[in-house]
């Protein structure tokens, strides 16, 4: 393992591109405000975007790939930091802004792993910034902008050397078939397509009549019999009935004025919903906000899943990309991951914040991150794992 120090080299990444673990005693801190150092556990991951901790104590990581077809992947990382492949060959393609797009958010319930697929190469860059056209060659996969469900046993999780999805398998999934991959014996995984969101909707502009708005699912969580997915392309949250597979938008987030206009960027900022979590029966959604990503314009929204009602819980953030609520003895604290602590255009390091009160101010727990993409929580080890877009998996210990 190597210790990662701060860096001022921040590259802009697709704003729709959780891995942390820490013990309850560490989470509730006891008043310490010392910033932790970041230690690299793994590198050379394929642009990790989502993460979670299984009941077997392993991390699962979703990796968007390198934009070539079949380079998306789900990896297993054991408590010692060893990586194995769960599923390779998942879709990946260059998004309209050029960045790789493939598997994004993941969520596990029982032995079912729900996997979001991003926008892929459904669209291409339009004639001017902020416009997108339908890919004239068609997408490289029929299952972009969808939710897959994968079933595998604990035995498979702990022992498999991995499975590979083929283009024929992808087409079978799109056709509604269940795909079973096997290495012999009980080492197998069953995959099916749960829902397929629209790849895009027409969004004509006066000067670009063929402009489209792509779907770009990012974060995923379940509550009771429903699945909820943020969509950073369409700027809303999808709700999916797990029993009927029916889906519809729950809440749409409006644009806000760009405080840097007219000096930098257009007059408005898109919401760009990213992370999503559940707290007290409500949904918490981070809004990263769009280019030029000004300081202080990002928020955490609280959504009523019954009505879609939306209220701001935490404001004055910058490029918030994930949230973890922790409740103890009736009091809730909020841990927020920022892709960058300053704007515009990701001008600061990424950081990890604690809000003991949503009104703030926060405590900066770590600011040694470079474009973090997700976080996950292990309440038994006292270790925080964070994925970064550049392919790193980091730990941030709390003492």
Task: Indicate the topology.
Layout (H helix, E strand, L loop, with lengths): L1 E3 L19 H4 L10 E5 L5 E6 L5 E5 L8 E6 L5 E8 L2 E2 L5 E2 L1 E7 L2 E6 L5 E3 L6 E3 L11 E6 L2 H6 L3 E2 L2 H8 L4 E4 L5 E9 L3 E3 L9 E3 L2 E7 L2 E6 L4 E6 L5 E6 L3 E2 L10 E2 L3 E7 L2 E6 L10 E6 L6 E8 L2 E9 L2 E8 L11 E6 L7 E7 L2 E5 L6 E6 L4 E5 L2
Parallel strand pairs: 6-14
Antiparallel strand pairs: 1-2, 2-35, 3-4, 4-5, 5-6, 7-8, 9-10, 10-13, 11-12, 13-16, 15-16, 17-18, 19-20, 20-21, 21-22, 23-24, 25-26, 26-27, 27-28, 29-30, 30-31, 31-32, 33-34, 34-35
Short description:
With about 400 residues, this protein is mostly beta strands. It has helices spanning about 25, 155-160, 165-175; strands spanning about 1-5, 40, 50-55, 60-65, 70-75, 85-90, 95, 100, 105-110, 110-115, 125, 130-135, 145-150, 165, 180, 190-195, 200, 210-215, 215-225, 225-230, 235-240, 245-250, 255, 270, 275-280, 280-285, 300-305, 310-315, 320-330, 330-340, 350-355, 365-370, 370-375, 385-390, 395.
Strand content: over 45%
Taken together, the total number of domains comes to 1
CATH architect. name = 6 Propeller
Cα Rg = 20 Å
**Main beta-sheet annotation:** 5 strands, antiparallel
Uncertain runs: 1-34
Strand order of the largest sheet: 1-2-35-34-33
Write down the overall geometry: globular
CATH secondary-structure class: Mainly Beta
User: What is the name of the CATH topology?
Assistant: Neuraminidase
Distance between the termini: 19 Å
Q: Determine the fraction of residues in helical runs and give it as a percent range.
A: under 10%
**Average pLDDT for all residues:** 91
Tell how many strands the DSSP assignment holds: 35
CATH superfamily: TolB, C-terminal domain
Number of helical segments with 4 or more residues? 3
* Structural classification: mainly beta
């Amino acid at each position: 393992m190597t210790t990662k120090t701060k860096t001022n080299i921040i590259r802009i990444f697709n704003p729709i591109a959780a891995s942390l673990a820490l013990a309850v005693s560490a989470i509730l801190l006891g008043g310490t405000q010392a910033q932790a150092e970041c230690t690299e556990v793994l590198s050379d991951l394929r642009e990790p975007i989502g993460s979670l901790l299984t009941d077997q104590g392993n991390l699962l990581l979703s990796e968007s790939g390198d934009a070539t077809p079949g380079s998306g992947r789900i990896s297993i990382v054991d408590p010692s930091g060893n990586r194995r492949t769960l599923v390779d060959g998942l879709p990946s393609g260059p998004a309209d802004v050029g960045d790789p797009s493939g598997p994004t958010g993941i969520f596990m319930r029982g032995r079912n792993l729900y996997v979001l697929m991003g926008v892929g190469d459904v669209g291409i860059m339009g004639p001017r910034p902020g416009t997108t056209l339908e890919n004239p060659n068609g997408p490289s996969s029929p299952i972009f902008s969808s939710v897959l469900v994968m079933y595998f046993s604990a035995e498979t999780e702990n022992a498999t050397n991995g499975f590979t999805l083929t283009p024929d398998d992808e087409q079978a999934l799109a056709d509604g078939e269940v795909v079973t991959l096997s290495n012999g014996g009980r080492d197998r995984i069953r995959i099916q397509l749960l829902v397929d969101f629209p790849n895009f909707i027409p969004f004509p502009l006066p000067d670009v009549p063929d402009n489209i708005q792509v779907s770009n699912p990012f974060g995923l969580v379940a509550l009771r019999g429903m699945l909820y997915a943020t969509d950073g392309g369409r700027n809303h949250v999808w709700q999916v009935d797990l029993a009927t597979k029916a889906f519809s938008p729950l809440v749409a987030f409006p644009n806000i004025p760009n405080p840097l206009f007219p000096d930098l960027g257009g007059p408005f900022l898109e919401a760009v919903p990213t992370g999503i979590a559940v707290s007290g029966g409500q949904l918490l959604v981070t809004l990263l906000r769009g280019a030029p990503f000004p300081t202080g314009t990002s928020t955490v929204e609280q959504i009523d899943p019954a009505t879609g009602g939306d209220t701001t819980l935490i404001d004055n953030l910058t490029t918030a990309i994930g949230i973890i609520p922790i409740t103890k003895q009736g009091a809730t604290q909020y841990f927020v991951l920022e892709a960058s602590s300053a704007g515009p255009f990701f001008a600061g390091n990424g950081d990890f914040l604690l809000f003991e009160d949503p009104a703030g101010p926060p405590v900066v727990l770590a600011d040694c991150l470079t474009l973090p993409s997700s976080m996950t929580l292990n309440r038994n080890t006292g270790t925080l794992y964070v994925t970064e877009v550049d392919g790193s998996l980091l730990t941030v210990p709390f003492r």
